[in-house]
Amino acid sequence: MQSATAEPRSFHFSSGDLPPSERGNAVRELYERGIVPLEPLPDCSLHAQITKWFLPGAGILAGALSGLRQVATRHIGGDSNDVFFGINLAGISTAAQRGREVTVRDGEAILLTHAAGDFAISRPTPAHLLGLRVPRTALAPLVTNLDDAVMRLIPSATAPLRLLTRYVAAVGASARLALPELHRLVVAHIHDLIALSLGATRDASAITQGRGVRAARLRAIKTDIAANLGDCDFKLAAVVARQRVTPRYIHKLFATEGTTFSEFVLGQRLARAYRLLTDPRFAKRAVSSIAFDVGFGDLSYFNRSFRRRYDATPSEVRNRAAG
Questions:
Q1: DSSP bridge pairs for 84
Q2: Which single residue of 72, 110, 235, 303 has CA 20 to 30 Å from 19?
Q3: Model confidence at 242, in pLDDT bands (50, 70, 90)?
Q4: CA-CA distance, 122 to 151, in Å (whole number)?
Q5: The CATH fold of domain 9-223
Q6: How far apart are CA 73 and CA 251, in angstroms?
Q7: What fold characterizes domain 228-323?
Q8: How far does Cα 101 stand from its chain's mean position?
Q9: pTM to 2 decimals?
């Protein structure tokens, strides 16, 4: 596990960039880059496409593996104080530890730990995954008997697990993992959501519900808004239905950031319009077209709001950028 003072880093690997004859050795060498050792499975098509982030207090692995087996022993594969929370996004993975085998299917998760002995995860066919590696010392105080959670299948319907999956996907797709000042906050939320997925203690649950769950919900709602900004009829009710929360809960989430749902949507639309107006690729697109593209149904309202936010008209901003 990366130390708290180490510089966060990341890397991407794809076996598709290599000739088939070189892929086996290449995936074995990923161990030297902080990946639990990978071994090709006989008579299986080998494929690996992964991105790994190393944060202070968490390692995040995302991607797809096929024809491979990860084998971790107390001597090879990492610190015995780390725990591994594997989420099988799609496909089938088979985890083995303590003389047991557990099949992990779409959306399900499982906890593995070096402290419980050697373990292995086999993926003979394509499986999309999200792997989280965190210090045992960070998770144990939050979970009711962490050792009992080892090799216990976490169902895909578990609400905190679904939140965790969406949260990590959202921060990975955004610039959040590239901003060192946010790393500790992201890691704390990951710890919280893993604990809730496993079964947090009563005291920890009160803390994590207010910290990790709230952050994950807000991130999911903001991602939803960003994906639907271009819809002129986009309304709070649509987000409520998709996120399965109440309007009051959404208003409370935005209030913690000193804003409202409507103000956030307006700000996102104006920011997107500003980016389009200052992008040379859209220099010939009409201002009205850009306004409608970002979800404004009323051009006069767009112009007033834009000038209030940027102290300049859309045309003035475009001309300055071209200037």
A1: 112, 133
A2: 72
A3: confident
A4: 14
A5: Jelly Rolls (2.60.120)
A6: 48
A7: Arc Repressor Mutant, subunit A (1.10.10)
A8: 27
A9: 0.67
